[in-house]
TrEMBL record, chains A, B:
Residues 20-131 form the Aldehyde oxidase/xanthine dehydrogenase a/b hammerhead domain. GO terms for molecular function: iron ion binding; oxidoreductase activity. Signal peptide: none annotated. It comes from Virgisporangium aurantiacum. This is Carbon monoxide dehydrogenase. Keywords: Molybdenum, Oxidoreductase. The keyword DNA damage does not apply. InterPro entries: Ald_Oxase/Xan_DH_a/b, Ald_Oxase/Xan_DH_a/b_sf, Ald_Oxase/xanthine_DH-like, AldOxase/xan_DH_MoCoBD1, AldOxase/xan_DH_MoCoBD2, AldOxase/xan_DH_Mopterin-bd_sf. The keyword Oxidoreductase applies.
Amino acid sequence: MGNAYVGSPVPRREDARLLAGRGRFVGGLRLPDMVHAYVVRSPVAHARVTGYDLSAARAADGVVDVIGVRDASDLRLPCVSPGPGQRELSYPLLDDVVRYVGQPLAVVVAGTPAAARDAADLVTVDYDELPPAIGVEHAVDPDAPRLYPDWGTNVATDFEVGDPRGDCAAAAHDAAHVVDMTFRFGRASPYPLEPRAIVASYAEETLTIRASTQAPHHVRDHAADLFGLRYDRVRVISRETGGGFGAKEHLYPDEALVCLAAIRTGRPVRWSEEPADRLVATLPARAAVHRGILAMDADGRFVALYADVLADLGAHPANCGIAPAAVSATMLPGPYRFDRVGARVRGAVTTSTPTGSYRGFGQPEAAWTRERLIDEAARRAGIDPVELRLRNMIGPDELPYTTRTWQDYDSGDYPRVLRTLRDSVVAPHRDDGRRRGIGFACHVETTGMGPSMGMKAIGIQAGGFETAVVQMEPDASVVVSAGVVGIGQGIETALAQIAADHVGVALDDVRVVLGDTTTTPYSSIGSIASRALAVSGGALTRAAAQLRTRILEIAGHQLEVDPADLEIVDSTVRVKGTPQVARTLREIATAAWRGWDLPDGSTPGLLERVSYEPVAYTYACGAHAAAVAVDPATGAVEVEGYWLVNDSGVLVNPAIVAGQLRGAVAQGIGMALFEEIGYTPDGQPNASYDLPTTREVPDINVTTLETPSPRTPGGMKGVGEGGTVSSTAAVGNAVAAALPEIADRITDTPMTPYALWRLPRHASSPGQ
Amino acid sequence: MGNAYVGSPVPRREDARLLAGRGRFVGGLRLPDMVHAYVVRSPVAHARVTGYDLSAARAADGVVDVIGVRDASDLRLPCVSPGPGQRELSYPLLDDVVRYVGQPLAVVVAGTPAAARDAADLVTVDYDELPPAIGVEHAVDPDAPRLYPDWGTNVATDFEVGDPRGDCAAAAHDAAHVVDMTFRFGRASPYPLEPRAIVASYAEETLTIRASTQAPHHVRDHAADLFGLRYDRVRVISRETGGGFGAKEHLYPDEALVCLAAIRTGRPVRWSEEPADRLVATLPARAAVHRGILAMDADGRFVALYADVLADLGAHPANCGIAPAAVSATMLPGPYRFDRVGARVRGAVTTSTPTGSYRGFGQPEAAWTRERLIDEAARRAGIDPVELRLRNMIGPDELPYTTRTWQDYDSGDYPRVLRTLRDSVVAPHRDDGRRRGIGFACHVETTGMGPSMGMKAIGIQAGGFETAVVQMEPDASVVVSAGVVGIGQGIETALAQIAADHVGVALDDVRVVLGDTTTTPYSSIGSIASRALAVSGGALTRAAAQLRTRILEIAGHQLEVDPADLEIVDSTVRVKGTPQVARTLREIATAAWRGWDLPDGSTPGLLERVSYEPVAYTYACGAHAAAVAVDPATGAVEVEGYWLVNDSGVLVNPAIVAGQLRGAVAQGIGMALFEEIGYTPDGQPNASYDLPTTREVPDINVTTLETPSPRTPGGMKGVGEGGTVSSTAAVGNAVAAALPEIADRITDTPMTPYALWRLPRHASSPGQ
């Protein structure tokens, strides 16, 4: 490697355009002849549609097209990671049974957004209303209204992970302490800054989709399958995505309807999510109930951990369906040893918006369940919570380590992370009548999605590779392309750093091209699962190093010296110690592209294309601590201090990493204290949604350790999600520490003032 | 190979859009905010510009920008294949010395084409006129006006090829027959159906050039160098090129000025060639004078061939400059044995439009010189011209054969080609008072440009490779991309045929992507030199075969059988003899792109990228015969019959080949009989140009032989230019045969009625 961009907090190149208002967002796009779509959505939660009248809307001024259920019959999108025995493997774009408020009913396309919206009011739908099933615990009740009567149940999938329940129970039988608690996770929205938006056009037999998406190729493949188009006849462009957090990893039914409108009308069709629709139209997540049981012996040794994971799938299994709950189960053990770990995972349908993926993907829930159980066990046993954790933690000498849930941890020093955290915490002191507590939480995190033993054991096929292409043009400029996309995470900058170092050129000589299925390598998965840098950057690390080797080989041939004696300095390849014997990179690159004066057998050109397929996940880890003050009069929680230690392997850009960790903690705090899409008993969602602001998020003290991944070329691990995993649990443990008399009732998120205020104040269960 | 598309005359897929009026030509493009350019050109041939006034034009209604010489100072384009010692290696976009009528003086950019044109009339230029130098024989006169006074001559480059003149003269010394004739080739225009056109835009630091071009990467590289942009910041798109014939192989100064206007204004700028400007603005070709000497012994054995090649470079050496004349010299010997062959090559500047490349690239001139000399020798010796040719022809057992001019012929059966032709000719008979004659001509043709020994010996570095990328998408559709472009020659269809056969899929499953520097592999050369199919198709032959191998390997792994026992039938890989054991291509492709269930060590995905660099040219050959009737009263020549036999190796699409041969013969007839850009003594070109129509072109009887190239994967040779090479000479020999008494004066093209009519009618030189 020539330079040392990797590890340096170079400014994000994306910011030059983003901060200057030159972001290339889909919502700002205007194409000639463009028309605008408005999605008509169901106002009721559960009903049979008995009549549709689209004729008035079709006749309205400026209306170009109206798509109803009959126009989209048989158009269905697939569930990509169904659970074992899952009852539905796809879902329709439009359906004549309504199962949630906000379900698309029709799409109106008109010359202006206002005309489309006005005409939407002319769409009339007659409903035969059905009783809703709200709340997943209610939905699994045998008497609950059924969403799919022919199933005979609302449970779509039901399977076990790790040790069977019986084995866990047997191990717990003689345990000194058994903590058995039920946790409820509020339905949270990923809520990216940029709403979902799409412009679709169809010309020359090609469907072009400009979308705010995390996974252009995934969108391409699904759109092609949906409309029976050849894959190469669908082009997806994602030039800027203003946050995704899992919410933009697939093609939504409303987006697919916009594509259909483009095909039908032959005109570019633009749509972006209405603010009012956002909470019902973009998949929420987390919604789950865990009954968790932790068994511990008298010495404070963890004996068994079991969870009954019940996930609220919403109206149907959507793109990723049960997968987050499966990850909750397989990631349940965290950084600790247990004799037995198991979980039952069920996904049930409810008359609510289908649920999906959100930063952390089931891991924040797993951490909450495990870390709350540990704190409660510590409280009951009278052991310091940090001490109890350290006593049970997998040591660095035990790695690699395979959990009872088939996770094969690769590297890290979990105790060191926690000790480093403990040493950095400074408890705030103020005498204002509020109750104060500090909570800790630790996690191991799946990143850099490769083939997952855990998912495979369950029967969910997952994983995939990334390809990086690095090319030195004849003028020695370097172009990198990759299948992952920029979603605000700075991948464009990070990939440029890797390429510049490994090729040996200046950072400014590297351009990174992302987000266009016609010009970038295939990525079946996209920028999700904290994998973009680890997997795509891993591929690029190899590709860039290969390119450097080729450059030195050509220069060695032309200069008649051993390539090992050459170095690249200032865009020139020169002989070490004899710098006057040199060729400029441009001379070498031009010769390479002309095919002139190359070593025998050398392929002309300077292009390296490398696919890197991880052998498995690479596991990051972290420990978080929150200090809270709880107002006993109102139940209001203030996070007064926040500390975290994170180890995501080699850091390419520490400034970006710190920013990602802080943003993720803010989301974790939001989930802990405010964020929830609630439903009334008749299935109406709340219309407002409280996101944390700078008032609710304190300074976050970030410490990073760097244990290289032995699995990733370059040693990187993922970091995009890490900050969310322990943060909600740390706040929960801090609240429990502040309110020890009701600690065992600190089980649900969000811990809103009202939720805390209404908890019974007396101690409910004696410590065992 | 699975199918048999190669060798089959499948319909051209391009025609579906071209015949339906859906061709995607640049001239039809309209972009938002687009403005229009008009190029102000010099009305005088030679002058110093003493004053410029652009102010009135700049102030005119609707004018956005006016670019004068001071706005483009130091902007120069390179000569890509300069001759040895060539005096100029580049040329300016705008110059304050005018050296030809039509030289760009300024560019006016306005909101409409009419506004730009009107404002152009307001540009005033003061000239200090200088004497023109018209006609290359005049220009090399020591007294001729000098275009570049500091050169001390108008000769830009002067070098020898093959055997030295003295050796040739010595060999000829004792020859029984020495034919010494001087041939003049009219200045012809490639005159593609679609005029040159460009739309340039500059946004997000990227210059996008949509152009009608044969070589997008070449245009990209030169535009980037010109404006100091990184190569990856220039994108050239060429979606449809309505004929090129060599005239669209590079970036012209006027086109570069349109790019400059786009950079200056930030708006898309459109320009297309004015009909009136076409003959002065697009490089013409052929313009040359050959003094040729053929020496033959008493047995009719060719002893020596020498030519003094004097090329009219026009006002400056342009993109390819002297290279066509160098090819005339190195290809002089054709399919015959000579003890000695040599040539002197000079390029001189004249006050006329610079000359360039045109289908045949010097070879039609070489064929005319050689074949006219042979016919004249036959006439003088009283030997049948076909018999004389066969006597001296290189036999198939002599191949590979290296000429005295360093051409290393690879394969073919030249005598068989000529005998086949002779057997197919049927002399027309009509008694209408016209004189009738049949002429034959034979050639060997350089195709599939690889490194050329001949050019290298002269010091002109040439040759290059092509890369083909073939990808099977997860849905089993196949996408091919290549750096060559479609210019009406059907390459899109031919590449699809190769890919379909070698992968083993249906033709309709293959899409071919060409003509966009951001999505296609690099091609430093482009679609010129009859190389697109031989070189790019050679690369694709290998890439597609590799892809098939990979598919069978994966299928073998999954089906647990030896890949050798598998076949691909109907998009399914199945076990030979046990067709029920099978995987669909889609299943295999999806697994490959997911990285699931692949053989150990297998790269995920299904993409093959192969660069093929020819070891040398591959040589096609042909023989042509024309039957003419000459009206002695008017000098009018009618081509009454035409026959050709061509061997271009393996034919991918015989229908396309036949079409290309016929079109090229039409151009050869045009050059023989009508086409010439003439200049008045004061340097004014003629304003009209006679192209042959269906009235002037008879039915052309095409016979093809197929001697595979041993050099090209797939055995193909080029065919795009072949029809031009011998056709002009065949018509010339036919006219000479019709007018034997003045046969030795049939030396110049075009043989217009006036030119023939004014020839002295008496025999001028007795046969030796």
